[in-house]
Design goal:
By secondary structure, the protein is an alpha/beta fold. Helices cover 51% and strands 11% of the residues. The protein is built from 15 helices and eight strands. The termini are far apart.
């Protein structure tokens, strides 16, 4: 199918551009839709997306366009790389055109009002579409620069997984498959919150032991939460769980880490986001995740602590102090000890 049709990428941000390039390098004709006509024209004329991936040449096989209906009409396989806050607004008006399409979400976020993941929103908008998720330790610039990278495509639809693997798999980008769409996508959304904490810790000069503690307790916390919602805990030991958590919590290229670093330097949340100049999904996730954890009565001290820092005026030192003084619990409490 991918040999007969162009492939659409929706969203002109850094990851959408990186994915469009990967597809084109694999010989696909890519229709890259973006809302901003000036951005599309800049890519068309200069073969570069200067706002989001400055210095990266956009492949000639990538055709930037602003006509969403035309892109959807021409394509069967569609990668959705829209910000979580814009996804419903952009796609609801064209819902009828999505029936029967293969829709692969690459957005790692949670809708505030509904606590729906992006693929669940896609399913609501287009119940007759075939839905998948692409997630993993995939920093956009490194993907664009051809650093060796692995990702996960997750769907109950085995044929969709195979088509995505065939379209994206190349010399520097490897795609694994999973049937746990919910777990893979939830891991991608949750890790953004912990990257903000990690960035703050780095800005404040905290030691390697502290960073390691934060990452491993974050993994325990996000897995505990995901299991409560019905995800497979083993998913979080793979690329979309611990793999994505490690890269996002340890790299200055991570948007959420950059926001956390700015907060650790003393900037306000508003100034930190403005300095980034791009959406950091973790910021949108903090409030909804804390509320959901309280509703489900899931113990998430790092999420509660970050909420206290960002919205309640607490400091990272205070939060870590509270964490260190809390009752010592079991190290790994979300995997049964029998049946292995």
């Amino acid at each position: 199918m991918t040999d007969q049709h162009p492939i659409a990428v929706l969203g002109g941000g850094s990851f959408g551009t990186a994915i469009a390039n990967l597809l084109a390098e694999n010989g696909q004709h890519v229709l890259h839709w973006m809302r901003d006509p000036q951005q599309a024209e800049a890519i068309r004329q200069n073969r570069e997306n200067p706002r989001y991936l400055k210095g990266i040449k956009v492949h000639l096989g990538v055709e930037p366009l602003t006509d969403l209906a035309a892109a959807l009409d021409a394509c069967q396989l569609i990668f959705v790389a829209l910000p979580s806050s814009a996804l419903r607004q952009v796609l609801q008006p064209v819902a009828a055109q999505l029936a029967g399409k293969l829709l692969v979400s690459t957005t790692k976020g949670i809708e505030a009002q509904s606590f729906l993941l992006m693929s669940q929103i896609l399913q609501n908008i287009a119940p007759q579409a075939r839905i998948g998720v692409l997630s993993g330790p995939n920093l956009a610039r490194e993907v664009a620069e051809h650093a060796l990278t692995a990702s996960v495509v997750a769907s109950e639809d085995e044929d969709l997984c195979q088509q995505v693997q065939a379209a994206l798999h190349g010399r520097t980008f490897r795609v694994y498959a999973s049937a746990d769409r919910f777990g893979v996508e939830l891991g991608g959304a949750l890790k953004n919150v912990y990257a903000i904490i990690a960035g703050m810790a780095a800005a404040m000069g905290m030691g390697e032991n502290t960073k390691s503690m934060l990452i491993t307790r974050a993994l325990a916390e996000m897995t505990r939460f995901a299991v409560k919602l019905g995800a497979n805990p083993m998913t979080f030991l793979g690329l979309a769980g611990v793999g994505d958590l490690i890269v996002t919590c340890s790299s200055a290229k991570s948007r959420n880490y950059q926001v956390g670093f700015a907060l650790g330097e003393g900037l306000s949340l508003k100034d930190a986001v403005e300095r980034l100049g791009e959406v950091a999904e973790g910021v949108n996730t903090i409030k909804v995740l804390k509320a959901k954890a309280e509703e489900l009565q899931v113990y998430m001290p790092l999420v509660a602590g970050l909420h206290a820092i960002v919205f309640e005026g607490r400091t990272l030192d205070q939060v870590i102090g509270a964490l260190m003084n809390a009752e010592a619990k079991t190290d790994v409490d979300f995997i049964p000890t029998s049946g292995f």
